[in-house]
Q: What sequence folds into this?
């Protein structure tokens, strides 16, 4: 879906909260099949970013906070955000007009079976219906 949502053949995508880069590299490889796109990964965990940078040279990784993104205004065509915190103002600042923000958040029963093994009482995740100022929801699954 992300590939079809991006308008141009070239561009830049940022994965916020990329951790050790496994999924970031997989997204970069998939996008590279059809387009010339620069992919960045960002996380606050220095150890994870060090590992990612060594293992996945096709992606540019950096240690930074998602609350103060180290990108110029309108520098990104897309942002991928999987369970990561961020500020709507920062997304609006760095994403080009017509750009895409893809957000993944946990469903109510995310990791439920694992939590049952750890906790006496399992708390379900609250449903999140986030709407960022400056962006329209195009699709929800």
A:
């Amino acid at each position: 879906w992300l590939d079809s949502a991006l308008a141009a053949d070239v561009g830049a995508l940022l994965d916020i909260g990329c951790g050790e880069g496994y999924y970031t590299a997989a997204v970069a490889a998939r996008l590279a099949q059809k387009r010339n796109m620069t992919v960045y990964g960002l996380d606050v965990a220095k150890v994870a970013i060090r590992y990612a940078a060594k293992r996945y040279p096709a992606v540019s990784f950096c240690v930074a906070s998602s609350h103060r993104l180290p990108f110029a205004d309108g520098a990104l065509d897309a942002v991928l955000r999987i369970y990561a915190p961020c500020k709507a103002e920062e997304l609006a600042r760095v994403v080009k007009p017509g750009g895409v923000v893809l957000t993944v958040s946990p469903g109510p029963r995310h990791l439920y079976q694992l939590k049952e093994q750890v906790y006496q009482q399992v708390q379900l995740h609250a449903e999140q219906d986030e709407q960022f100022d400056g962006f329209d929801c195009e699709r929800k699954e």
